[in-house]
Every structure is written in structure tokens, then in C-alpha cells.
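Appendix B. Raw example, untouched.
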Amino acid sequence: MRKLLATSVLLATASFNVSAEECGKVTIADMNWNSATLIANVDKFILQHGFDCDAELVPGDTMPTGTSMIEKGEPDIAPELWSNSMKTALDRGVKEGRLRYAGATLSEGGEEGFWVPAYLVEKDPSLATIAGIKANRQLFEHPEDPEKSAFMGCPAGWNCQITAGNLFNAMELDKAGFELIDPGSGAGLSGAIAKAYERKEPWFGYYWAPTAVLGKYKMVKVDFGSGLDEDHYRACITKEECLDPKPTMYPPSPVDTVVTETFAKRAPEALEYLSSRSFGNQQMNSLLAWMEDYQADGEITMEHFLTEYESTWTQWVSPDVAKKVKQALSEL
């Protein structure tokens, strides 16, 4: 009996060691924006302590990371890849057996739209529609021209400047008395929302999620009354030379976790975690707002997330893995 027990222990130990070796060294792209660096740190901690991987963060950005994964097979994991920006190349990498889409990083996808503060809609629900915005355009005062109303667009040079401008034209907001204003920068755009909120003033403009701004300030996405025409959006609204833009809501932007095929085959249990791991936009908005308020980096925000959102992340892993992660967390 003792001999059988000893053999069982040896087999279990051997199985554990094989599992650890299979995971081995794992490189994770730490992208240069807040949600991506948070997720990268969450993945590193869970893979390291829950799956015994030798996890390491490496600097990353969308195009360089995606290209390197396709051509060089590294890094192993891109936790938050806005895949539309290089979809053709990524799909080719999948077809050639180099990459794999592990799962949706953001369950609702990236979100874009024209927004107004919630306090306006609470007073007048029609302001949640483009028809209501046009009918009450005098609310949205232009900072320089009292004859005009203000629509705050996307900063010059950003891709969203094209789509916001085309949709502004599609809905004939200029004919309704609006002028498209360039905020000058991302900080200028977010600052305009913050200023309006502090003063409880009307505001109408473009923004996106997940962001700290939409975590701090309750905003309502304006309904264009058009539904979504994704084909027209892709074929025209995203193009600078869109000659006949038509109204359409913004489609969600796919935000994926992408891994190399070698990692996927080497570490199936870790892959299962990455396939399950997904954040809702409102949850991520709140995390990014906390991150900004406390001027926290990705590692500190990771600890906050694992401590305060236990009911979320424990759904992504087995009870045994969750126990190991909690133990490591208690030792920080």
C-alpha cells in the first residue's frame, strides 16, 4: 500500500513538473496604454502563480507586436490587440498556423459614438437622439461664434477624425447649425468633457470606450436613428474620400487576445484561461478611472483588480488555480 501511495505521489509530481515545463517561459506584450498594461499585468500574475509559467512582460504596441508575432513568433501573448488595424495580416498569420485568436479581451468590443452628459438626458430624454440634439441645438454653445452650435470632434491626425467628420456630414449637422470643433489633442477632448461636467453645462461630441473619462463621467451615447450599416461604415465612413456618407451607428471594434500557435499548443490550460478572460466596458471604464485617480501603474491596478473584483476573475480559472492566485496575492 505504501509502495502504491509513493508511486502515486511520484506520478502526480511528474505530471505537475511536465505541466510547468510545458508552459515554460511566456512573454506578454505590455502595450503603451492603460487598459492594455493592466490586462498584461493581470495575465502575468495569474499565469505565473496560477499556472507556474515563467511569465515576463515585454514592451509592445499594436503594429510592431502583431508583426513580430507573425514573423518571429514572439511575444507569446498580445493581451489587448485592436485587431481591425491589421486584420488582414493577423488573419493571414492564423491561416499560416502562426497565430491564434484566443478570445475577446473586451466582451462588447471597443465602443465609439457621439455622446452627451447623462444629466441632460435626465432633464430631456429627446437629447439621447440626433433628432433631439438638432431640435435643441441652441443648448450647445459655440465657444467663439454665438450664431453656431458646437460639436466636439476627434483630434486632427487621429483615425477617428475621419469617421467623426464623415458622420457629422452624413447627419447634416452643419445644416442644423453645428460646427465641428477640433479639440487639439486627446487631453483637450477629455478636458472639455470634464469642464462641462463640473459646471453641469451642455456638451455634445465624439468619444470612445473603454476610457477613464467614461468611468468618471456618466455619458449617454446618442442614437442616430439609423441602425448599423457595417458595410457602408467600412466602405465609406472610414475613408477620407467618402463622397456620399450616410448615417450609421459605429460598429463595435473587435479587441482580441492573440497568441502564437506554439504557445497555444504548448500550454493548453493557460490558453483556456486566456480564452475565458474578458472585461465588460463599464467595468474597464471604472478600473481606468481608479487608475487615473490614484495615478497607479499597471501592477498596482492589477493588485486592486484581483483584490476587489474576485468574483470576476475567479470565473476565468479553476478553483485550484484561484486558490494559488489568492495565496500569492496575500503574500504581496
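End of appendix B.
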